[in-house]
Amino acid sequence: MHRFRRLLLMLPVLAVVSCIRNDIPYPVVVLEILGVEGEGFTCEAADIDTKNRIVTLRLDEPTDISRVRIDSIAVTEGATASVPLSGEFDLRAAQPVVLSLYQDYNWMIHAKQEIARAFAVEGQIGAAEFNTELRTARVYVPMGTDLSAIRVTELKLGPEGVTTMTPTAEELTSFETYRTVDIRYHDFEERWILGVVHTDVKVEMTGADAWTKLIWLSAQGRPGTALGFRYRVQGDEEWSEVPAEKVEVEGGTFRACLSGVEPLTTYEVVAYSDEELSVVRTVTTGAEEPLTNGGFEEWCTEEGIVYPGLSRAGAFWGTGNTGAAVAKTTLTDKTDDVRPGSTGKYAAKLESKLAGIAGVGRLAAGNLFVGRYVATRGTNGIVGFGRPFTMRPTALKGWVKYQCGEITDVGATQPPGVTVSKGDPDKGIIYFALGTWTKEEYGVCEQEEGDKLVGTDEVPICIDTRDKNTFFNPDGPAVVAYGEMVFDQSVEEWQEVTIKLDYRATDIVPTHIVLVCSASRYGDYYTGSRNSILWVDDFELIYDE
Question: pTM of the predicted model, to two decimals?
Answer without folding.
Answer: 0.84
